[in-house]
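Task: encode each sequence below as structure tokens.

Item 1
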Amino acid sequence: MTEDIITGIQRKLEKHLRPERYRHTIGVMYTAASLSMCHKGNMEKAMLAGLLHDCGKEYSIKEQKRLCREYKIPLTESELKMPALIHAKLGTYLTEHEYSIEDSEVLNAITYHTTGKPDMTLLEKIIYIADYIEPGRIAIPVLDKVRYVAFSNIEEAVALSAGSTISYLKKMGRDIDPMTIKTYEYYTKK
């Protein structure tokens, strides 16, 4: 992969995403690159997955659902109840079909960037955490601790992030995706 591919995708996303979403995307891309360097991952794949992780999020929820039906992307009951999760699967589809990225590691990292999953690959953990800790992220519980821990123990960072997400959703009286719970349980037992 060359720098030209990443630059071309950046230009396309800058036209497609709202400015604040684009800034977040660039923040995730560079945070993923930093985490990748720290944990000896593949920096190009981390940058690519970070850059494309929210490419399906700019559409309204109604449009995301319509596109999933059109593209025959199966949605779980949880995703239908919690439509904020849908953009991950739609983004994976768009990454493959609109941005011509067929690397399964990159596609899986995009798929699981919102919920995580047990036994994630290094790239999946990097994108999950980079989305949580990127510099533009508003202050959320345990953010500073996750930022600190992410560069020394990424698995602990995953457990902290998932736990914080679960606590927040419980406090707000919102549904929690079962995969987020499984992620938390898996990484707190490690």
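Item 2
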Amino acid sequence: MAAVRADTADVVVVGLGPGGEEAAGRLAEAGLDVVAVDEGLVGGECPYYGCIPSKIMVRSADLLAEGRRITGHAGTAMVHPDWRPVARTVREATADWDDKIAVDRLVGRGVRFLRGTGRLTAREEVTVADADGNETVVHARQAVVLAVGSEPAVPPIPGLARTPYWTSRDAIRVDEAPRSLLVLGGGSIGLELGQAFCRFGTAVTVVEGTQRLLPREEPEAHELLLKVLTEDGIEVHTSARVESVDYQEGTGFTLYGERGDRLVAARLLVATGRRSDLAKLGALAIEVDDEAPALPVDERLRVVPPASGRPGIWALGDVTGKGAYTHMSMYQADVVVRGILGEGGPPAAYHAVPRVTFTEPEIGAVGLTEREARERGLVVRTGLADLAASARGLTQQIGNDGFVKLVADMLSGVLVGGTAAGPYGGEVLGALSVAVHARVPLSVLRGQIWAYPTFHRAIGDALGQIG
């Protein structure tokens, strides 16, 4: 018979991705009694299935591409891809998907850890069910922090649920590159993993339902990636609606499109976004629609502000709908910790959220796209500079062209968005992020001296087009 026990803590943190772990640790170090709950691996998606292992795969694939460029630039070379060292490095980086080190680190900061599924059963109460069905009902005296993250979203395509499709989690754990791969979704995850597998010899086909790859980003990013990925040998289908999916042992996966097209591959990676399960979290217990895409939060990340001695409910990370990025959860964790400790400080601001797609070329972006800025009614002017013209010789050696695009609000005289696409686009993005975040006047940016020959000097060329 399952057991039920009661517990009490100052703060209960549900979800221990990077932001949840940071919030729990800091609150415990501040002297609060903190109970932290997670059914999965402490550390969340990033160290085990996301940022870190995927970048090992991406960097390994980039090494192959660089080796293939030696001939004609620096001598001759024969490149033979081998997935085994990649898989070995991923296993080492994730400790073979074991979180003992992370749990010890968390407990070492003074946090009490419960392994299990945490669910709100009242405003002050989180019920934790472990793998054996035993329950611990934890009453929060001061605060509940919801940091449950998100799961891969799987579209309701007829036949898909009956197949052994991959999500990004499955793709990260493979011991060998598949012979062929269908990637459903042309966003960051699908493109990063698709290009990596392609460079290890996998025949890759990307299927995107909208008109563009990376539909959230500037159309110029789509055009650049479409050119480069096609040159890599990836088959790309946009505006492609999948009607049904079939799987046969030996044959593999077959995708049937609405236009009568039929695509076949040994494996299928579903990379169509992520979602937070508010029903599983028990959102109705705090009078939040459990079918909503995210928890509603104010500028202090409060879902329910504390009142009359009752604990407040805070949220951070993917579940807030402000961006499924590790850096977002860490940023929000700081706001939440300051709020619970009563330290004040600036509220959360989202006008300069950076994001990077680690394809080659990298697509780094911050703030608003041109379309988003115009939809908000801003008086917009843009500047677009070609990397090949701004840094002659560098792009030829690295292998890809690129661009810098700036979006300016002419009434306020500041940049509201920018994209750095090309070699080291994520690093070039740093200068744009500072400019957008600090609302640096265009007049100041135009007076800056940009080093030559560097990729970031294309920012100066793009500023010159804004006028």
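Check on item 2: The radius of gyration is 24 Å. The chain has a mean pLDDT of 95.
End of task.
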